[in-house]
Amino acid sequence: MRIGISPFASSKDVALELATAAVDGGLDTLWLGDGYLANPDFAGWSGGMETMTELAWLSGALQSARVGITAAVLPMRDVPWLAKQANTLHRIAGGGFVLVTAPGFWRQDIEARGADYDRRGPTYDGALDALIGLLADDRYSPGPGPDGPPPVWMAGAVATMRKAAARGLPYQSSRALPDELAPIAAEFFERGGTKLAHRVRVEIGDHAVQGEALDWHAVTGSVDEVVDTLGRYRDLGVSDLSVIPGQDDATSRTTVRALVDEVVPQL
Q1: Are the C-beta atoms of 204 and 237 separated by less than 8 Å?
Q2: Where are the beta strands (DSSP E) in 88-168?
């Protein structure tokens, strides 16, 4: 199971510190979400920056890292421009960019872009078809690189999982603890799904503070407890885990160090 982190921090320097510690320690992917309006759960360097720009910076600073957006909300995106950005970033990252896409979660973000939140599902389906075509079209600059376009994944709720299985695309679930994920994972594989990924908040310690606007269902506790829980994700078929290690510097540092030094070696 591949494990990566989102380097959420209070400043640019700490974000780079966390990313460097993770990559040097063998956590080979740096993930960032796709927000639009200000959100107290994702302030500043804790997820509030423009995603593709920050990922390009991280890729330049840590050239061995895979980078990924989780997830590009297609109903509020300019799809041809996103295709150009994605192919560009895939080249900057040496073929190591993952483009996770989603119909969206935050109503205020989608409506601020002038899209219909209640029709985001059909809008997403059409946008995804267009995006996949544009990524592979060498008439558009820069077009796919020598290794082809970036891999496209799907993220969202159960309806999106079923579409991902039908399309033969990887599916990234989020926020669910293993018992909650188990029936979703089982259905995904029963429907012929191949690659299952997951995004979850993990904090090493006695207590994880929940966000103001979103219950993260955090994996928290001692090193042994976290090893056990992450192992359960692997047993469910999760092959790619995206970790939010905390939303303040202290918990992020502690969690990243524990993941590198103790959790991953035990897994």
Answers
A1: no
A2: 97-102, 152-155
Residues with Cβ within 8 Å of residue 186, at least 6 apart in sequence: none
Those residues with Cβ within 8 angstroms of residue 149's Cβ, 6 or more apart along the chain or in another chain = 86, 87, 90, 135, 136
Of the candidates 40, 32, 106, 52, which has an alpha carbon nearest to the alpha carbon of residue 76? 106
Q: What integer is the mean pLDDT of 186-204?
A: 96
Is residue 10 exposed (0-12), middle (13-18) or buried (19+ Cβ within 10 Å)?
middle
Judge contact between 73 and 110, C-beta under 8 A. Answer: yes
For residue 243, the model assigns a pLDDT of 97
Distances (CA, A) of 153 to 112, 172, 201: 25, 7, 20
The 10s digit of each residue's pLDDT in 68-98 is: 999 999 999 999 999 999 999 999 999 999 9
pLDDT tens-digit map of 146-188: 999 999 999 999 999 999 999 999 999 999 999 999 999 999 9
CA gap 231, 149 in Å, rounded: 32
Q: Is domain 2-266 in CATH 3.30.70.100, yes or no? A: no
* pLDDT band at residue 207 under the 50/70/90 scheme: low
Query: Can you read off the two tokens belonging to residue 101?
Result: 């896409």
Is there a contact between 51 and 104 (Cβ–Cβ < 8 Å)? Answer: no
Of 198, 195, 192, 167, the closest CA to residue 180 belongs to 198
